[in-house]
Amino acid sequence: MPRYVLKIEYHGAGFAGWQRQKEHPSVQGTIEAALAKLEPGDHKIAAAGRTDAGVHGLAQVAHCDLVKDWDAFRLSEALNFHLRGQSVAIVDCAQVADDFHARFSALERRYLYRLISRRAPLTHDRGLAWHIKHKLDANAMQVGADRLLGRHDFTTFRSSICQAESPIKTLDQLRVEELRLPHGTEYRFHVRARSFLHNQVRSFVGTLERVGVGAWTPDEVSRALKARDRAACGPVSPPGGLYLAGVTYPEDPFA
User: Fold this and answer.
1) Alpha helices of 65-191 — where are they, by DSSP H?
2) Which of 210, 196, 119 is CA-nearest to residue 157?
3) Do the Cβ atoms of 209 and 144 come closer than 8 Å?
């Protein structure tokens, strides 16, 4: 059975997350239903990472096995035809070797979190960014973010329902970018690691927002990390500002 890799873009609002669920719409279930219209049967796709309800995908990667030997471009076009009306699109597709696995072959995941500070409510970015009204100190947030880089026990920034075997992870990048807008400021958090714990990125951002507003100091971020206690974490930021931005493999399957 030929194996295909899909690069997927989706708007997370309206989905109960990536993972297939019996009673609620999911991104995985939506794509598998589209595949069943091309080749009848029970389809199961595997993704580079699961995203929670409300979280978006800019470049999620998943693979599937099909019976027919499809031209990759025609497969993506056929899937998009059956995905019409859904907030999901296949932006790229390629045939890969049988030993390629979207999750286990990945070397790195990249996430983006968007936070917009302005007095007026969000209109075009509603549901696509965390909206706050107060200003933040980007430099202070970056100092706090730097305290989290490297290999640590991230129990403090891990959801209580996280199923990962170990809380020890290596954080390669947590960069804070400040962008001036006509009526406010957007703060973008660029996060990069081989793998993440459940709610880890949103826990980082919620904690750093406290630093940006002056409620926490960067030293308190260090103390929270060392506490290895979920209760020491700052508030968890909303899911609508989070995007799975990309996945890196030993060789780019879409090249």
Assistant:
1) 72-82, 138-146
2) 196
3) no
Cα-trace Rg, the chain: 19
**3-class secondary structure, 126:** coil
Phi-psi region of 127 (alpha: psi -120 to 50; beta: other; left: phi over 0): left
Helical (H) or strand (E) element with 61: strand 56-65
Retrieve residue 123's tokens.
């209109």
Catalytic residues: 52
For residue 47, what are the β-bridge partners? 62
State which H helix or E strand residue 37 sits in.
Answer: helix 27-38
Tokens of 246: 């990309």
User: Distance of CA 8 to CAs 5, 27, 124, 164, 218, Å?
Assistant: 10, 10, 22, 24, 36
pLDDT tens profile 169-196:
999 999 999 999 999 999 999 999 999 9
Q: Are 164 and 81 in contact (CB under 8 A)?
A: no
Mind listing the pLDDT tens digit of every residue in the chain (255 residues)? 899 999 999 999 999 999 999 889 999 999 999 999 999 989 999 999 999 999 999 999 999 999 999 999 999 999 999 999 999 999 999 999 999 999 999 999 999 999 999 999 999 999 999 999 999 999 999 999 999 999 999 999 999 889 898 999 999 999 999 999 999 999 999 999 999 999 999 999 999 999 999 999 999 999 999 999 999 999 999 999 999 999 999 999 999
Using CA atoms, how far apart are residues 103 and 109, in angstroms rounded to an integer? 10
- The pTM of the whole model exceeds 0.90: yes
- pLDDT value, residue 160: 87
Structural contact between residues 197 and 159, judged by C-beta atoms closer than 8 angstroms: yes
